[in-house]
Amino acid sequence: MVKITIVGAGIAGMSIASQLPKGYEITIVARDLPGDPDSLGWASPWAGAVWMGMDGSPPREQKMQLDAFAHMWKLAMTNPESSVKRIEMHDLTDFKKPEDVWYYGKMPGVRGIKQFGDTNVLVDSSLRADIFRRVHENLPEAFPETPSGFQVVRDIVGIRPQRKTGARVEKEILDGQTVIHAYGAPGGGYVYSYGIAREVAELVNDIQLKMPKANL
């Protein structure tokens, strides 16, 4: 029996578990688990529940994102009870033409902000006001001019555990044990989710094929 331990129960960890062979004995170890009381100490509960290609992604990460999109699209089509749904979305960008967006044509046809290295989870009133201003400037017919005109359901500040060098998905031997690293998606854990999981599953399969077989 192949035994796998996954550290972390966010979208990456859970996606990886779902993509490994069903016959493996999988243990998930995590400080925070789905269903726990609200905690800002991890990213997945607060991340945007949407697929949107990440700007500036290198080809390898583009493939991860498209693999995740394909998986979620299939879920929406075949398993509506999963809560994954197809809805219309309008994305406002600074690109001069749609063809400049790397994922243009690869999927059927108002973000917030991110600050690299900032782990403060308190609401920044100046950024809050700036978001109100920007959404009004871009869609004045839908968003009022003053914050007092908004019905704010909740302020959410989440962390984005990204790396400047991009997602890390690779294997390493530590103290005689094989460890597969899978973290650092640049602010798009759900966008990468099943794409990273597929790469991890391929690495696990590669490791299994190279392991010596017991003599019976």
TrEMBL record:
Coiled coil: none
GO MF annotation list: D-amino-acid oxidase activity; FAD binding
Alphabetized InterPro entries for the sequence: DAO
Top-level taxon of origin: Eukaryota
GO biological process, one term: D-amino acid catabolic process
GO cellular component: cytoplasm
Cofactor(s) essential for the protein: FAD
Protein name: Putative fad dependent protein
Keywords in alphabetical order: FAD, Flavoprotein, Oxidoreductase
